[in-house]
Design goal:
Elements lengths: L3 H18 L30 H6 L7 H12 L12 H4 L2 E5 L4 E8 L2 E12 L4 E2 L4 H6 L1 E3 L10 E3 L3 E5 L4 E9 L3 E8 L2 E8 L6 E8 L4 E4 L2 E3 L7 E4 L7 E3 L25
């Protein structure tokens, strides 16, 4: 279980993200257009009468795709931070719809400096089914990273304590922390190639471990346990049982649990004695 420091971090981070998403109870500033009977101007007015089939046809439309996705979320009755009951043009302006394959889409709020990092993601199938993959504080903290090439690096969702792999049927826990104080997961790039970083939550978010995707093994490669530079006696530990797509490489070798201890075989009897 995580300690008090992580819980405080999650609460503070969630509050900050909620404020950034504009999902609080305060009224929007007067400079933001408030959704009226016809809805925000950035949403096609005719979309309010689309059937599910009509909305699905328009998902691939560059101009109407977001309107179609919003309509499908409304038809599914899914409560989502990225599609609140009251929509404004300022909010819709941050919505992005991205294809995750031939049959899947994601709708989310794009970060201001990266359209491929989508917060509060909602998954949509080409047939119109809508899935809210996470809820509660995890929905506020989740970031879905849309890959440039899923054959080289997969679509993933990063949370402070977990990395989820976006597959055809479900989200798979690729990497999960066992001890999660002082560190969190993030997605970073080097020379155009993505990797999952484990970073300290203080000291400028120093990177302490890297997990690189192996497209042949279909797994991340990285340490299961290692020391932290701060605090001096700190250490992180990956939950190997919960991590379904991790091949431990490097770092310290974690000590086996009592259930994992290998019994020492008895010396063979001398049959000639």
């Amino acid at each position: 279980m995580c300690g008090r420091q992580l819980r405080r971090l999650l609460v503070v981070t969630a509050a900050a993200v909620a404020a950034w998403l504009g999902c609080g109870t305060k009224a929007p500033p007067a400079t933001q257009p408030v959704a009226g009977a016809s809805g925000p101007k950035l949403i096609a007015a005719e979309s309010a009468s689309w059937s599910r089939e009509e909305a699905c046809i328009r998902l691939a439309d560059a101009r109407l795709g977001v309107s179609a996705a919003v309509r499908l979320v409304r038809l599914a009755g899914v409560a989502s931070l990225c599609v609140p009951e009251e929509l404004t043009d300022a909010h819709v302006g941050r919505l992005r719809l991205a294809a995750l394959g031939a049959e899947r889409w994601v709708l989310g709020l794009a970060e201001r400096n990266d359209d491929r990092r989508l917060r509060a993601p909602v998954l949509i199938r080409a047939t119109g089914e809508v899935v809210q993959p996470l809820d509660g504080i995890e929905e506020e903290l989740a970031v879905l990273h849309v890959s440039r090439d899923a054959d080289v690096f997969p679509h993933v969702v990063t949370l402070p304590q977990r990395v989820l792999l976006v597959t055809d049927g479900e989200l798979i826990v690729a990497i999960a922390l066992e001890t999660c104080e002082h560190v969190r997961f993030d997605l970073r790039e080097q020379r155009g190639f993505g990797y999952v970083a484990l970073v300290l939550t203080a000291a400028g978010e120093t990177e302490v471990a890297r997990y690189r995707w192996d497209p042949y093994e279909l797994a991340f490669m990285g340490p299961a346990c290692d020391k932290l530079p701060d605090p001096p006696d700190g250490k992180f530990q990956i939950n190997l049982e919960a991590s379904q797509r991790l091949e431990p490489v490097g770092g310290e070798i974690p000590a086996p649990t009592p259930d994992e201890e290998i019994p020492v075989p008895a010396a063979p009897e001398d049959e000639w004695a």
